[in-house]
Amino acid sequence: MPISKKEVISIAIILLISLSGLALTLFTLNVWDVTQKGILFNVDVPKLPAEYKPIANHTVVVLIDGLRYDTALRIAKEGKGILSTIYNEGAWFEKVETVFPSISPVVRASALTATLPEIHGYTGYGVENYNLSLNLDFNVFKLAGERGYTTAIIADPLAGGEFWKWVDEVIENKWLLDEEVHNLFINLIEKGDLPNLIYVCYVDTDTAGHKYGGISSEYYNTALNASIFIEEDFEKFYNATNGDAIFIVFSDHGHTDKGGHGGTEREVMHSFLGFIGKNVIKAHIYEEIKIYQIGATVSFILGIPLPKYSILPPIFDAFNTSAERVAGYKIHFAHLKINQIRGLAEEIGRLSDVEGRISELNSTLSEAYKAYGDGNYTLAESLADGIIQEAVIIFNKLLSSAIFNKILIKVGIVALLIGLTSILLAVIGKRYNILYSIAGGSALYLISLILFIILFLAVGESFSMSGRPIFSSLIIGIISGLIAYLFILYLSKSGRISEIKPHVAIPIATLAGFLVQLSLFIISGIISIEPLEIQYAFTGIVLEIVSVGIIIGYGISLILANKFFTK
Question: Which of 163, 358, 405, 423 has its CA 20 to 30 A from that of 235?
């Protein structure tokens, strides 16, 4: 039987809706693509109050990619490898949180620049072959090089692609098996003339997590092997430097039970961090630590200035060092934080709002410098702590405001696209009577939903985005759309507004659902305990826009329009 003209038009409209959904998905995912979109601002980095010798002449930062904290703890308690050595003899951190989005290149950039993704702005992939020219010149490699220290990155095309401009040597800028990385590191030790700052990556644990899941025996055994390899690395390096070395071992993120990361699940966000080596104390530290404090801590170890966008101070409690050094770095960070407040406030046009607070903080800072100069390090540290506590709060509020303004622009653009597309589809659908068919509306909804799921599964393969936040966003989006549309329905049926026709109701319901969902996430960020949690709420909007714009706009509102607004 030949297909009628009406059926051809119906199929064309279904394809148009599906392709529009696909286009909007790709557009909204672009909020966190490979382009650097940070909030950069002018910051004057103050001089250190004194010259400090390195706590150890060699610092080795070792990444076990994708290692869950609970897996690290299990290996440590079973007495195997570097994890056990750190647990029993070094500084072991119980509460370490990574950044969002919890994907490898983002965490590397944050850890080695000491700042948030919202500031450094690199939140995707694409650097592996030096394809992107990133402005990340506020990193520890650059600072170390300016002090005359030698630097190297080993077997990590992500870190190598991000920081190659500021590193003396990038050794094997490609993914290697853990055994190959281990052999490469041992060969470097045997050659002698070791760099002062080395970063090395063991990636097999992450590979196993994606392939077998975060609670699989394959994942555990791979992590165990990495721990054993790194233990030998540490022993040989420590002996080669006559004990003049510190190893910082960390994971960038964990894995879900089924495998995957990128979201905010506890097992993904809870990272591993431990120190072992010269002047490292033996302790289990229960203070909440952020993964980006690694960069500031490397500066503290080397005796160099902190990266200019450092969010939090170095981790002081892990080292056996002088009160003078700790007080000096706390003053340095307090001074830097005040300068950050001024720079960010100028950038977003709010300097007049904080000038009085800046003046008060500078007054206390002068007292801290005087106490330090007088040798009263206890008083200097106390004054600096007070400045830091207040300055961090002020800075976080300014940063949240800057993020809000930045995201609001994107939200407006996406809302406009959603509105225009839904109007277009509603007009076309009304013209050819597609909107008057409940079966047709359901088919459109189903096709959009299937495309939505397929696309996210495809994207998840490359972006490693775990499924839970995606589908929870979908559910919240559906609820938001229903609330918005039923409210419009109530206003219409109660006579408070005149009856809304389908081609008007659809875009209104679409945008209303979008706004409801947006409001829910903003509110959840505002009432969160974490001062910077509102940023996570905003970055999560990339998923919320997709679920509302595609599923609600082109699905449920169509079905409800057919049901209640058809004459």
Answer: 163
